[in-house]
């Protein structure tokens, strides 16, 4: 789940936990206190007039190491997701990933270019546009409708998560059925499911190692961990994003902002898998025309850095729900996307894919006593299902359902 919380969850830095997690009262010492600044490099940004932003390479773990259940990758998990980490890590060498990424990302422009009436058929207002095509339904930081990008949402693992009409009505953004453009773009379903499955499978491996890391600091029942929670969930959601080329959208108004393409937010769920954006001009792949453009992250120390990872890598970020349930051992990452600027950026579009992995709507979340995010929503006994919790968040930030 992401989209509808998207702009409402632009908390800027408010979703970041105070730094007491770094010196937790359990006495759990951070495995690593290395300053992430050692990976920060300053680069001059070709098309920007502002002073250069620092650029930071993600921590990487090879798929082969990740797959080894006996390998101890805690240091890297901590460097990526821990209280002093950058908030993102990436996995290299995933078999088939590069071709699956390219196959899906190349379909996003074709989807966005379908006739309006065909795209309308792919919309799902009942789920607040959390299934199928969504364009202009979310808001920019300015409060205006977001026409800069179009999104296509689907659960890549389950076409029909439930047939229970009550549940579909109650948790429409999770329990609805996928809407595929079967006649207009039949390749989309195949490519979306294939890429989503790989990012999910690798995400489970990341989750396994996250659980090992967290269990060093806090007591955790075996079935309470991130890996098992994700494994039994029916709510995972993929989002294929298409950022329209500059001349087709009004970039001027947002042009100077760091978050000109995608506003500051933290993802709401458990773990997000992310591909590196693919840029095209007139349908031909090009390199990013402005080195200042791309994914930005607000680090734990409040610094804003551009995060970079290779096109053959899958990046993972922690969502708010994991930050809460792991008691801050794993931290959610405020991030945004900056559009390219300058003459070279004209006509250049960007495609990418995110997989939001999250607990099942029925999953009981046992909130710790000391919750720093959305504290007011948690009942005194600290127990809510993920579905209930998400609905409360949607109601908090959006109009209540009538
Ligand atoms: O476009 C991107 O690279 C990031 C998108 C994102 O953060 C999201 O969809 O939540
Ligand atoms: Fe995000």
UniProtKB/TrEMBL annotation:
Alphabetized UniProt keyword annotations: Iron, Metal-binding, Oxidoreductase
Domain Fe2OG dioxygenase: 242-359
Domain of life: Eukaryota
InterPro entries noted in UniProt: IPNS-like_sf (IPR027443), Oxoglu/Fe-dep_dioxygenase_dom (IPR005123)
Cell division found in the keyword field: no
Family membership: Belongs to the iron/ascorbate-dependent oxidoreductase family.
PANTHER family named in the record: NON-HAEM DIOXYGENASE N-TERMINAL DOMAIN-CONTAINING PROTEIN
Name of the protein: Fe2OG dioxygenase domain-containing protein
Organism of origin: Hibiscus sabdariffa (roselle)
């Amino acid at each position: 789940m992401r989209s509808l919380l998207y702009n409402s969850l632009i908390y800027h830095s408010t979703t970041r936990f105070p730094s007491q997690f770094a010196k937790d009262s359990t006495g759990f010492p951070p495995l690593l206190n290395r300053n992430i600044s050692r990976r920060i490099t300053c680069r001059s940004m070709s098309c920007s007039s502002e002073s250069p932003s620092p650029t930071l390479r993600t921590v990487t773990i090879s798929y082969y190491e990740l797959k080894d259940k006996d390998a101890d990758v805690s240091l890297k998990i901590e460097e990526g997701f821990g209280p002093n980490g950058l908030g993102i890590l990436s996995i290299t060498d995933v078999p088939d990933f590069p071709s699956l990424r390219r196959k899906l990302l190349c379909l996003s422009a074709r989807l966005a270019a379908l006739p309006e009436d065909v795209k309308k058929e792919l919309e799902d207002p009942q789920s607040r546009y959390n299934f199928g095509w969504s364009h202009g339904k979310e808001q920019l930081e300015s409060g205006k409708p977001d026409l800069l990008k179009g999104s296509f949402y689907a659960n890549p693992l389950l076409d029909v998560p439930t047939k229970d009409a009550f549940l579909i009505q109650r948790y429409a953004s999770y329990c609805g059925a996928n809407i595929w453009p079967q006649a207009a773009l039949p390749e989309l379903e195949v490519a979306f499911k294939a890429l989503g499955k790989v990012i999910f499978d690798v995400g489970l491996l990341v989750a396994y190692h996250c659980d090992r890391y967290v269990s060093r600091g806090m007591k955790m029942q075996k079935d309470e961990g991130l890996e098992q929670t994700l494994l039994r969930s029916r709510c995972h959601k993929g989002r294929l994003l298409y950022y329209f080329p500059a001349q087709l959208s009004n970039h001027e108004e947002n042009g100077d902002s760091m978050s000109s393409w995608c506003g500051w937010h933290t993802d709401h769920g458990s773990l997000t898998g992310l591909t590196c954006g693919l840029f095209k001009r007139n349908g031909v792949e090009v390199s990013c025309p402005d080195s200042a453009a791309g994914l930005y992250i607000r680090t734990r120390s409040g610094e804003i850095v551009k995060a970079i990872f290779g096109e053959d890598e899958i990046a993972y970020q922690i969502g708010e729900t994991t930050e809460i349930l792991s008691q801050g051992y794993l931290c959610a990452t405020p991030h945004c996307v900056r559009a390219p600027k300058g003459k070279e950026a004209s006509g250049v579009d960007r495609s990418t894919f995110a997989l939001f992995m999250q607990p099942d709507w029925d999953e009981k979340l046992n909130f710790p006593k000391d919750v720093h995010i959305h504290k007011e929503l948690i009942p005194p006994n600290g127990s809510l299902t993920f579905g209930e919790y998400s609905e409360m968040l949607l109601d908090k930030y959006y109009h209540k359902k009538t």
